[in-house]
Design goal:
The protein is α+β, with helices and mostly antiparallel strands and 157 residues long. It is built from 3 helices and 8 strands.
């Protein structure tokens, strides 16, 4: 009985130690903000980069948007570059069909220098689809104190 009590205590201690290394707040929704999301204009391979200033941010946002043929920019209200947060550009890679744009971010957390971004899972269309290559991307913010070296998407319903 004594060894069972020690085993249960050790299990509880290991669970509490594992969660303390994770940067997570109870208000995850407010920590992440989706600034822009497009179905075209991203890289062919999945990956991310941290955007450092407003010039780089505007280049990234404008580069993914389609412009009118005569060269004039459409009247678009670009989101403001947040000074107090990290801004991350994430390329989802190449897809042959379906809609892969990100419409919301449900939450973010960091564990072992990996930023986990929870996004809604895409709904399958269930029929014949036209094969169209797309390279979706999105830009989002996380708290400035988050330290990470890679980004992973977690799809949830």
């Amino acid at each position: 009985m004594k060894s069972l009590l020690i085993a249960v205590t050790a299990l509880l201690m290991s669970c509490t130690t594992a969660t303390s290394s994770q940067q997570k707040s109870p208000d995850m929704q407010k920590n992440a903000e989706l600034l822009a999301s497009e179905s075209q204009g991203g890289a062919k391979e999945p990956g991310f980069r941290v955007i450092k200033d407003e010039k780089e941010f505007l280049t990234a946002v404008k580069g993914g948007l389609n412009f009118i043929a005569d060269g004039a920019e459409p009247a678009i209200n670009y989101p403001k570059f947040p000074k107090d947060k990290k801004v991350v550009l994430y390329n989802l890679g190449s897809f042959r069909s379906g809609s892969h744009t990100i419409s919301e971010i449900k939450g973010v957390s960091v564990k072992d220098h990996v930023l986990y971004v929870e996004v809604p899972a895409g709904e399958p269309s269930g029929g014949m689809e036209i094969q169209v290559l797309s390279n979706p991307w999105f830009i989002f913010t996380v708290p400035a104190d988050y330290q990470f070296t890679s980004v992973e998407l977690k799809y949830s319903k």
